[in-house]
Amino acid sequence: MSFLFGRKPAVQPVSGDRVLPLHFFENSPLVQGNNMAVSLVFDAVLDPGRLRASLEGLVRQDGWQRLGGRLRKNAAGKIEWHIPAEFSAERPAISFAHVDHGMPAASHPAASRIPKPQPVPAIVGDPDELETLAWEPGYKPGGISDYLTSDRPVLGLRVHSFTDKTIAVLQWQHVAFDALGLQYVVEGWSAMLWGRSEDIPVPCKVDTDPFDALAQGSRPATEEHLLADRRVGLGGMLKWGLGYGFDMLVRAKENRMVCVPENFWRPQMEKALEELRAEAVAQGEDVSKVFLTENDVLTAWILRCVVGQMEMAPNRTVAASLAMSLRKAFEGDLIPASAEHPYVGNAFGWANVLVTAGDITSKPLSWLARQVRKAINEQGTRAQHEAYYALVRKGAGLPIVIFGDGGMAQIGFSNWNKAGLFDLDFSPARVDLDGKSDGGGGGGPCRPSYVQENHGPIKPADGFFIFGKDERGNYWTSACKVQGQWGKFQAQLNKDFEVET
């Protein structure tokens, strides 16, 4: 781990390694700028050896070996994958560390700060207070360069054992996979833990980039992007970049976790659907076509809380960028069906919602949630993704397209609900009072009670991660905001959910 404490010269290639170029999405600064760590907190003692063996076993499976790959720069300065021909003690499939703290979590300075649900929607903690558990001691993520000067695998596991809890931290460089790719990884990890390796599909082959046609434009777009006329021009980009870039790179930020209990978000969901159904009836439309997801409603109230606390001018544009996976849109075309051969990598696009601050604060939540759903449905098609990346190719080298105007407020969303992190059952790794592993998974499910992510070095302001809901129906979301803004966010949260203070 010594490479984490300073830059070293690049290591020499190892003879026999399979060398592959990075794919289109892996060459993006959006992924290379982020080293990821997801912490899964279990209210049980788990066997670290079983956790390690099952994850290593997954990486050794046919088609999964890229997760044990290393990252190197070639003579031309291009980053490549170097995948060992075989894994060994000297060149393991994953990096691994285990720390046995020998105390209850409540007695540990960091673990005692694990956020807990509250009876009402609330800011419940600071994920950065657990950074010392997410990373190696003294480490601050520096992006992909951290992986270029050692033989470190791109995937790692760090396990913290307490007498009453276990924190399993999955670490990776974002070039390895995105949020939906994470779903396939943890599902495979769980299957190995349960002894069901035969249920693990062989991933989509990655020797060539399946999204190369999208990157190169070899297949022209068949339609114009729906927001093409709202693309920000050069002058607007400079104005927007000065504001948003200053917030991201210069101003101090605070990371916070927000928890919303089911008895608060569920009525909001039902009310929104009732309002949209009543509107459909009044307009003579088919009521059965009214549809919202829980994420649509959560995204809408986050938008309202952010805009409400910032006291914006009513006519100011608010742009919500919703990260989307491209897999569903391109299955059977550029990639095979995910159920048969999942694409374990990065394949992302964006849906963009453009509204005014006045609309957000004055119109009902149902209206805003419908704008979110409409953007996902209309901009999530294959043709719209192709149109989007056609605009990227025509851009000024940016990996994304900015829609709106130079004075807009930008809010980002990454929905991890489909990753199913709260649905994982690691009971086969549970250790009983006699210190024996529950290899058969008896004694009921063992699911995470808390999930968070830490990443860096890029930390944009108002970029919200929605992790999903736990067994009790609590929804969890976190973000970094400019220092001093979270108090106003909580006040708006109280107003939105009619919480008495």
UniProtKB/TrEMBL annotation:
Signal peptide: none annotated. Belongs to the plant acyltransferase family. It comes from the Eukaryota. Residues 433-453 are annotated as: Disordered. GO terms for molecular function: acyltransferase activity. This is Transferase family-domain-containing protein. Pfam families: Transferase. It comes from Aspergillus candidus. Keywords: Acyltransferase, Transferase. Pathway: Secondary metabolite biosynthesis. The keyword DNA-binding does not apply.
